[in-house]
Specification:
The complex is a heterodimer.
Chain A lengths: L7 E7 L3 E10 L1 H18 L3 E12 L1 H16 L3 E5 L3 H10 L13 H39 L6 H11 L4 H24 L6 H40 L2 H7 L4 H38 L4 H11 L2 H27 L7 H31 L2
Parallel strand pairs in A: 2-3, 3-4
Antiparallel strand pairs in A: 1-2
Helix pairs in contact in A: 1-2, 4-11, 5-9, 6-7, 6-9, 7-9, 7-10, 7-11, 7-12, 9-11, 11-12
Chain B lengths: L6 E12 L2 E12 L3 E6 L5 H8 L7 E6 L2 E2 L5 H10 E4 L11 H12 L4 H14 L15 H12 L6 E5 L7 H18 L2 E5 L3 H7 L2 E6 L4 E6 L1 H7 L3 H13 L1
Parallel strand pairs in B: 3-8, 3-9, 6-7, 7-8
Antiparallel strand pairs in B: 1-2, 1-4, 4-5, 9-10
Classes of the chains: A alpha/beta, B alpha/beta.
């Protein structure tokens, strides 16, 4: 748009209640910026019954200039006043006709705040229930397929499964180990502050090993896997959905759950316990470092953890990880396959995969805690 | 279109490619002010690549591209911005921002280049929607549009700043013949009433004959322009077997 501002405006009150606006020069974006507020103020002040535009001196007109004239016209029509343009060059008049947008459509009046909030609440509740329903349904469906694979292992795409296991598992060892090490270190330090008052620093080892084996090891690893791989599963499948690759599978007679979700599920279930073991091991190393700095020999530390934790503690923790792995992959794939069509849909799916994954993990962990309590593990 | 019209785009000895692979070598041509200029060629011959170089998205390996008096290859800062304000581009799939309504899509460009009041931008956006025949779709999201409407909306957005030159990448690809013909009519109308210069990448014969004043044809094997002139001229008089095949094979289909 041209920016040179060479237009001028003259206003004249006409009897009775009319307003004459004479434009001269080049009516372009530059001059419209300046004239727009001035013209609108004049019209609003005098509330004319008729507006007459004298366009004899208008040399050229761009979109912004035309917008100014259309706006005046719309304002007059709103007020049921007259509007006329005089002396506009024919070619410019043709242009005006081509671009005339007509009256603006009235914005649709939405419902009030109360109705909207009740609506929103109902919708959220509905989404929660249907979301939970579809999650449970999908996990059940995928579990049935999993049993099918146990009967006929050749039905699983093993090459894909190993590739996914490498990406989700082997490539995550570094971060999982680092997190374990740091958590063990921090946990030992923090608990030592309290224990020292009673001269019971040696029991820091008991605390850390129990917490790591039973709760934090599986949980931290599950959180890492959710954010690393659960989101990736959702994004991969979501992109395939947007690109109609999932539809292509369906029309080729290939079951997308079998083809896409199952390898991911098997891979996640396989790598999750292994990653958790790494996490626990490095957590213990972190804790051992702190114990060493308190002056305990390594042998004493190892003795202490052997006495504090039983194989049952370790197994109890590891059993959970199978379930966590299934949840992470299942929810990630479900969210991916639920992806919509809009450009932000893939991002939304990845976000929802992480959020529902974490919630599901924590809730399941709670269920396990209650179960273990009654089983006496 | 008179042959004495001034060139508005001059492409001189341009070599384009990716990495070390040359797609087009020593291409020279000019686009005259006010004409509808089409770049033709088979798939993968570098039509869209050439267009991307002409709008300054990529730098050519050698050569210069003058667009409306400015070298788009070397222009930077304010000069480049001013040039971008004088050209409009409609991408193949529309490239409309999915999170905004069509009106907001157009207003975004206006906000960047003008400081008009909000109301003025809205009115301008509605005017542009009217020109492309989408006056009732302003509040819709791009995902709610059909393919033809999306292309029109992309043209409306490209028109936002009253450009002198409009670049269209395969405007009628993937459209049914009727919608494609309507789009061709729109291009002709805009070219005649607004005196906009069009540079269109296409391989749809029907469109070429409906809109083009002059065309150039690129070839994948020879990596250069193999024919240039009015489309009728190429169809009737070209000796090049590839050009003949392009026009007659498609004509036989149509």
């Amino acid at each position: 748009m041209a920016r040179s501002d060479t237009a001028s405006l003259e206003c004249e009150q006409l009897d009775p209640g009319g307003l004459r606006l004479a434009f001269r020069g080049t009516l372009n974006a530059g001059s419209a910026e300046r004239l727009w507020p001035e013209v609108m103020r004049k019209v609003a002040e005098s509330r004319p019954s008729a507006v007459e535009i004298d366009a004899q001196g208008v040399e050229s007109l761009d979109a912004a200039g035309m917008a100014l004239l259309f706006e005046l016209k719309a304002a007059q029509e709103d007020r049921h006043g007259d509007f006329r343009i005089r002396g506009l060059r024919d070619d410019l008049g043709e242009l005006m006709k081509l671009f005339d947008p007509g009256p603006p459509s009235a914005p649709a009046r939405g419902p009030g705040l109360l109705i909207r909030s009740v609506n929103g609440l109902g919708q959220a509740a509905h989404e929660f229930v249907t979301g939970f329903h579809s999650q449970v349904g999908f996990l059940g469906e995928i579990f049935v397929r999993l049993l099918g694979v146990l009967v006929r292992p050749s039905r699983l795409r093993w090459a894909d499964t190993f590739l996914i296991a490498e990406k989700a598992g082997a490539n995550a060892v570094g971060i999982v180990a680092l997190m374990g090490f740091l958590i063990g270190l921090i946990l030992a330090f923090q608990s030592a502050i309290g224990m020292r008052k009673f001269g019971a620093e040696i029991y820091v080892a008991d605390l850390v090993v129990l917490v790591l084996f039973r709760e934090l090891g599986p949980l931290i690893t599950a959180f890492i896997l959710t954010s690393r791989s659960g989101s990736a599963f959702a994004a991969e499948l979501g992109t395939m959905k947007v690109n109609e690759e999932v539809d292509a599978l369906v029309t080729m007679g290939v079951d997308p759950v079998q083809f896409l979700a199952l390898p991911r599920l098997v891979a996640a279930i396989c790598v999750m316990p292994l990653l958790t073991l790494f996490n626990m091991l490095f957590g213990l190393i972190g804790c051992g470092l702190v114990m060493r700095s308190f002056g305990f020999p390594v042998a004493t530390y190892i003795d202490q953890i052997q006495e504090a934790a039983s194989l049952g503690d370790l197994c109890g923790g590891l059993v959970k990880t199978f379930v966590f792995g299934a949840l992470i992959a299942g929810i990630g794939c479900l969210r991916g396959l639920q992806t919509g069509k809009s450009p932000s849909a893939v991002g939304d799916s990845a976000t929802r995969a992480v959020v529902s994954g974490i919630v599901a993990i924590v809730v399941t962990d709670g269920v396990f805690a209650v179960m273990y309590y009654y089983l006496g593990i | 279109m008179g042959s004495d019209a001034l060139p508005i785009i001059q492409v001189s000895d341009v070599t384009v490619g990716y990495d070390h692979q040359i797609v087009l070598k020593d291409v020279t041509f000019e686009v005259r002010a006010g004409e509808v200029f089409c770049i033709l060629g088979g798939s993968g011959c570098g039509k869209s690549t050439l267009l991307k170089h002409m709008i300054g998205l990529h730098r050519p390996m050698t050569g210069s591209i003058l667009v409306d008096g400015t070298d788009i290859v070397s222009a930077e800062g304010e000069e480049r911005r001013a040039l971008l304000g004088r050209i409009g581009v409609a991408y193949q799939n529309g490239a409309l921002f999915g999170s905004m309504t069509l009106i907001e899509n157009i207003c975004l460009v206006l906000e960047e280049f003008t400081s008009l009041p909000r109301q003025a931008m809205q009115t301008i956006a509605r005017m542009k929607m009217k020109v492309v025949g989408l006056q009732d779709a302003g509040d819709r999201m791009p995902s709610e549009l059909s393919g033809g409407m999306r292309k029109r909306a992309a043209i409306a957005r490209a028109l936002a700043l009253d450009p002198k030159i409009l670049f269209l990448d395969e405007p009628s690809a993937g459209l049914d013949p009727i919608t494609a013909a309507q789009l061709d009519d729109l291009i002709v109308e805009l070219s005649q009433t607004l005196k906009i210069t069009f540079v269109i990448v296409t391989h749809e014969l029907a469109s070429i004959f409906a809109v083009a004043d002059r065309v150039i044809m690129l070839d994948k094997e020879r990596r250069t322009i193999i024919a240039r002139g009015a489309p009728e001229e190429l169809r009737d008089r070209s000796d090049d077997p590839w050009v003949r095949q392009f026009f007659h094979r498609q004509a036989a289909l149509a």
